[in-house]
Write a structure and sequence with these properties.
The chain is of the alpha/beta class. It has three helices and three strands.
Length: 69
């Protein structure tokens, strides 16, 4: 855990909602954590993605559910 908090490795955070992501961004900015935002599917505001980009937090978006008929 110390290596993660020291910034040696990136940590993956499974986040769903906009407020989860905003807290993650705050942690990245305050503590210098190297983070990856995983999931992000319940985010509907462009500003949240803009903040992720400004904080240099990569995104793994998905899974995407759909049905083929």
């Amino acid at each position: 855990m110390i290596l993660n908090l020291s910034g040696r490795f990136k940590m993956m955070f499974h986040v769903h909602k906009e407020d989860d992501i905003m807290i993650l961004i705050q942690l990245v900015r305050e503590f210098g954590i190297r983070a990856i935002a995983n999931h992000c599917c319940d985010v509907h505001k462009e500003e949240v993605f803009t903040e992720l980009k400004a904080s240099s937090v990569p995104i793994i978006y998905g899974p995407m559910h759909f049905h083929i008929r």
